[in-house]
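Quick one, T. Sequence first:
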Amino acid sequence: MTGTYMIGIDQSTQGTKALLFDEKGALVRREDIPHHQIVNDMGWVSHDGEEIYTNTISVVERLIENSGIDRRLVAGVGISNQRETSLVWDRKTGSPLGDAIVWQCVRAAEICDRIEAMGMEETIRKKTGLKLSPYFPASKLAWFLENIEGAGERARAHELCFGTMDTWLIYRLTKKQSYKTDYSNASRTQLFHIFDLKWDEEICRVFGICPEDLAEVCSSDSCFGKTDFEGFFPEPIPIHGVLGDSHGALLGQGCVKKGMIKSTYGTGSSIMMNIGEIPVLSSHGVVTSLAWGLNGKVDYVLEGNINYTGAVISWLKDEVGLVHTPDETEMLCIQAEKGDGLYFIPAFTGLGAPYWDSYARGALTGITRTTRKPEIVRACIECIAYQIADVVKAMSRDAGVGIRELRVDGGPTKNKYLMQFQSDILDTPVLVPQVEELSGMGAAYAAGFGLGIYGQEVFGCLKYDRYDVKMDDQMREKMHHGWQEAVGRVVSR
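Structure tokens:
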């Protein structure tokens, strides 16, 4: 095989993917390595940062070896990452102080409650675009400092690094030479002033973090350093693109114009709308972030984050045992009785947008004597579409624009029942790309833009399957009203 190649690394919640793209932006090969999900008896969710780094090296080696290309033909690397997952490590040794706190984990809720009591919630929202929540890294990083022995003292001595998984991987891949992040990831920390484009000193002080100890913030198509992947490549290659996973998917979907919207169906879901160069603060429960910095300018997005969407399917399989494989859910949904009033609220560790209730807990409502396994599975699948519809409608009101179509990506989009129901309950066509790897694709494209290898024509690589609306208005209104009543039973405030 000859030509020029780009690598996209997608460091996601469940594992790490390595993707190989050719000089036209087409996907050539994919390799995956999962990592351990660490959940303790208090429901805290963690990842081993060292395991993730080791897997990143291994999955890239496997990608190149199994593709059969000459490794000297790789021009650069882009990284997408599970955004809010947070880690603190020793600046000199690069060793983590403990396991990374995963974005789903709400162990820092009391820190947010304390800061809310200080009257800082609205100040934080106006500067960062984000609602005060343990979902975001600010309180997670504060938790490290308050709960890991000696961390506070070491922070005051400026001996520690703080970051999300992109910064961690860049630091380790460049042999501690590069301590950087990009605009998309910085905007999700709840420490970054999205209008002034810098770490906010007041907010950092509130969370007990010195802004000087945070990573340098760069455009998403910058050079973040060079790496040889622990000697695997004969010469170091540039890491020339970094994006949070949802931002990567937005770019990979080609949503580069104002009003374009996508939803990523992963463990959780990110619904994201490009709102262009002028930010809009939400009044309907979603948040404002930076889409990216590309070609010397930044774009903004409205976004809603949902804690549990694809993870509901994993729960059905791994914890409850109602299905053996995710593929079984589609047929069970078809077999289920429709319109029976059964709803599942997946508030395992609270509800995200647009409700933002960290204390809500899950519920299955509307159970009758005739409720069977198919109905329970169908309710679990439909809860994914209901949650996404709530967020899409909220951001449509904030932006003042109608939604012409929803572009989607992620593993659960293989479920035809879910995609049709999503279109029906949202009353909007749904477009499913015929490739799955949108986050890593977006990061690789950003790197290719930065290196001058790709232009806008790469977006023509995508082909879509389309789902059009089939449900009538009366049924849609009835079903959504039932969903809203069910959510109202679990929301605590």
